[in-house]
User: Which sequence fits this backbone?
């Protein structure tokens, strides 16, 4: 039977009180990063709505358009809130809106094994940087790690078989889930993570040029169109200078992102409302 434990770790030997302190410390560390990721994601969704509305680009979120207007930050907040609810209730994968992290602790004789579950590489990095944590994965579907001897690899198999005799972690693990609620609604915190105007302008220039490319390439299918277009806006591409010119023009026109623009209702042009209704 194939075994794939890519998220397996070995913890330093510690008693229950030390383990509790270790997990609380980990929770505190990732909570800081979690808030940064969360507020960055909110303000970038809101900024995208603002910028795309300005340039007549479809932005989705049709359910939040009321009386031909939309409030950018509230829309971002509700979108993420609903996406997180779907992740939890339906088990859907949506890495951009998944801010969770769980640790399963599985004690065996003379060892403490652990499994880390998260969609966030940032959380994984924080976990792996802890001095009490060592990589301890095991798999038999491909070659083992070159840094591990055959004897050590066999030992890992034995340990994971002892830890999960049924192959189901939930039957033998102690689960630690540090997050219950999403961070609070906080516009001021999100304002720390606004993209600079050049990055915003490059996104809009790319969208506008891509739309123009598709409109003028009716014989190409969507996949080939995209890759062909991307080749034209590389540094050595035929449309790269145009892309830089468009980026510069748009950067000069973009609005500053502040509390007012995030919370005021934007008027959505009728053409965009129609686009949203079609999608």
Assistant:
């Amino acid at each position: 039977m194939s075994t794939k434990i890519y998220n397996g770790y070995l913890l330093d030997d510690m008693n229950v009180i030390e383990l509790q302190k270790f997990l609380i410390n980990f929770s505190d560390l990732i909570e800081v990063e979690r808030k940064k990721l969360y507020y960055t994601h909110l303000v970038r969704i809101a900024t995208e709505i603002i910028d795309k509305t300005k340039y007549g680009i479809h932005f989705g979120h049709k359910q939040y358009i009321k009386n031909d207007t939309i409030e950018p930050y509230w829309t971002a907040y509700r979108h993420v809130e609903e996406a997180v609810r779907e992740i939890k209730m339906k088990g859907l994968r949506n890495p951009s809106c998944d801010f969770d992290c769980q640790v399963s602790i599985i004690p065996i004789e003379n060892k403490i094994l652990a499994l880390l579950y998260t969609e966030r590489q940032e959380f994984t990095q924080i976990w792996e940087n802890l001095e009490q944590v060592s990589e301890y994965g095991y798999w038999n579907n491909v070659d083992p790690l070159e840094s591990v001897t055959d004897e050590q690899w066999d030992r890992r198999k034995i340990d994971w078989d002892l830890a999960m005799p049924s192959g189901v972690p939930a039957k033998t693990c102690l689960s630690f889930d540090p997050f219950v609620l999403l961070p609070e609604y906080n516009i001021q915190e999100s304002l720390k993570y606004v993209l600079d105007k050049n990055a915003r302008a490059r996104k809009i220039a790319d969208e506008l040029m891509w739309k123009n490319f598709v409109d003028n390439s009716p014989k190409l299918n969507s996949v080939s169109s995209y890759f062909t277009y991307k080749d034209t806006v590389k540094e050595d591409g035929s449309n790269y200078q145009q892309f830089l010119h468009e980026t510069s023009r748009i950067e000069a026109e973009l609005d500053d992102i502040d509390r007012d623009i995030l919370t005021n209702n934007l008027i959505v042009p009728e053409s965009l409302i129609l686009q949203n209704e079609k999608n």
The CA atoms of residues 117 and 156 lie 19 Å apart. The radius of gyration is 24 Å. The mean pLDDT is 90.
